Amino acid sequence: MSDTRRRVKLYTLNEDRQWEDRGTGHVCCSDEETSLTVTAESDGSLLLESKIITSTAYQKQQDTLIVWSEAENYDLALSFQEKAGCDEIWEKICQVQGKDPSVEITQDPMDESEEERLEDLEAAHVLDLPACEPEHLEEIAELVTSVLSSPVRREKLALALLNSGFIRKLLLLFRSCEDAHHRQALHHLYEIVRGVLFLNKASLFEVLFSEECIMDVVGCLEYEPALAQPRRHREFLTHTARFREVIPITDSELRQKIHQTYRVQYIQDIILPTPSVFEENFLSTLSSFIFFNKVEIVSMLQEDEKFLTEVFAQLTDEATEDDKRRELVNFFKEFCAFSQTLQPQNRDAFFKTLANLGILPALEIVLGMDDVQVKAAATDIFSYLVEFSPSMVREFVMQEPQQADDDVLLINVVIKQMICDSDPELGGAVQLMGLLRTLIDPENMLAPASKAEKSEFLSFFYKYCMHVLTAPLLANTSEEDHDLTEGSARVNPVCPDNFQTAQLLALILELLTFCVEHHTYHIKNYIMTKDLLRRVLTLMNSKHTFLALCALRFLRRIIGLKDEYYNRYIMKGNLFEPVINALLDNGTRYNLLNSAVVELFEFIRVEDIRSLIAHIVDHFYPALESIEYVQTFKGLKGRYEQEKERQSRGLSRYRRDARSFEEDEDMWLNEEEEEEDVSDTGFDKSKSDYGKFMESEKAKESQDKENQPKRSTTASFKFTFAHSAAANANASNGSKPPPSSSSSGSRPAAPPAGLTPRTGLVDYPDDEDEEEEEEEEQEQAPRKRPRLGS
């Protein structure tokens, strides 16, 4: 006989008792080898080769499924596209095993020792059941419970229940017992129905979950003996739970399948108790029943193009009422969730169908609605789409009409939802930030066209979207008047005291830090044209330490690139000043901020970034030389002295001519002058877009400003070094001082003696040169970090 081939999906059951898709192919059953083979339709590879063994139990389920186990804890399933193909392969299996094709299970796995232990049973094939009467319910319940430990007896009981129509008789008896309020009989019926479910037989589920039986099954499960009063599951399913048809479903089979799936899922999740360790495998077939039902529902809906087209038309229609649109969005959310049960090829086709029908333009509309539930559901749908294909979303975004306002671009709508999240914990903002990160990640851009896609999309993002993302950051770090009298408390640029705003800025900084690591050219241009790093470092003065750490992490990533353009920008703007101030304001406390700042300077020392070393020692060493519990700053000084010594010998390999830096920087800024103009225009517009949002936050800050404590209560100090003094002198002559220069300064005073010394946590190679000096100073108490300005 020639081989027969049918299109199938191959599934295996994993350790979590969930079915995993192994691919689509064609099944072949040969008479010569008596084996099942599945060949992949994509590349012709062999997905399965399984010999048909006479002792293996094969089950036929739902007309298109064949399920069997090849070893302990290794279950397989073939899902046929056509019922005729399933019937033909089933006949081949039964022919090899010598079974009647009309049965739904060939035999139960057993060994000879199991058979010997069961020889005392009366019959070999059929188990005699007690009469279905109230007085025999206790006996039936004990029988059902006793067979659960034996696969052979479970199978015999299942056959007996099916052959005699016993289940329908039990459900009729349930109705009469409930009408008579026969509580004891109802308790026995609960045990019986629960035990029948634990038999884990698909053929029984077909009867139990049929339209005429399932509500009586739910009724039996209401009368748990441990409860004083019965549950009201039927009342919930029939009156509380409502089936909402966003568009009328004309296919009666589809409607019945949806109802059945919901009710069976309710039985599994709500009614049945959590199975014990010994019972966890009893309901594996029930999970499979639900899984394949969901696959069938999604396939039937996807094939109905008229239905989906009508849904999209109503979703995007401006005349659609808010309640109706909310139902439509929730439908698509659940539809996408069901699609996760599809195999990869079918899932790809599913999302492509949604994309062709216009799911992304529809999301632009619903994401901008005021309804919180609609926005949450739309965010979940957008999440499914981004996880499925970031490139598809990026392609849509870049194809949007460029003449349209930037505010209606999909990515800008998403950014606005992140910024304006009303949740105090910013749960939605965190989810949206993760999706944005996925979209701008060059690592997931298509390999063949990765270079073009990366360049085009990032240019688009930085031109049309980056100003929207950074608007809250720039608005909350605007500079104040620095004209203060000497000795007055230091007033840094405005820092957000509102916790929710601080959380939002932390999310934005996390995304910008990711950009620094992955978008070298575009983010560098944006940082320098916007002087973004200076604005970020004003957050070092925030009372929220986590926000100060985010700002510090942003600087650390920039320095970690060891890019001389960045280094020149940092030195020219004196951008280490807020970091040094934060370190000194932190006082003598050991905490994460202290460790992060020390690690930053230790990285500069270890990597020997000589331009930064010279800048730090020239401008900040007087304030840092008293820090002795780590050798980082002495190490910086040591490297600085070594470099000066090399310079004096004419061996300097470190510094480039200062004019070359100036020429390079002028060239950089001239090249990006045009993009700077575009970016400035975008930012001015974004400030007005977010005016209401930011004004409300400012109002909260102004109300609490006088009552909010400063981060440092022991000192008020700001550096004025040589270049700052020169800048102030220039200011008196009409020149503009650097934005970060301060109006007053102080040399740290010597700390009092007798304080407990700190012990260095790390030994460095450069420490050996200083051991003799440390031995001489052991008799004196080491100095602690000064509290400057006190």
TrEMBL record:
Per the database record, which ranges form the PP4R3 EVH1-like domain? 5-97
Q: Enumerate the GO terms in the molecular function aspect.
A: protein phosphatase activator activity
Q: Can you supply one Gene Ontology CC term for this chain's record?
A: nucleoplasm
Start-end of Basic and acidic residues biased regions: 682-709
**Its GO biological process terms?**
DNA damage response
Region described as Disordered: 665-790
Biased-composition ranges for Acidic residues?
Answer: 665-679, 764-779
Start and end of every Serine/threonine-protein phosphatase 4 regulatory subunit 3-like central domain? 139-642
Ranges of compositional bias, category Low complexity: 722-748
Q: Name one Pfam family in it.
A: PP4R3
Q: Which family does it belong to?
A: Belongs to the SMEK family.
Name the PANTHER family on file: ATP SYNTHASE GAMMA-RELATED, SERINE_THREONINE-PROTEIN PHOSPHATASE 4 REGULATORY SUBUNIT 3B
Task: Report the protein's function.
Answer: Regulatory subunit of serine/threonine-protein phosphatase 4.
Name this polypeptide is given: Serine/threonine-protein phosphatase 4 regulatory subunit 3
Organism lineage string: Eukaryota, Metazoa, Chordata, Craniata, Vertebrata
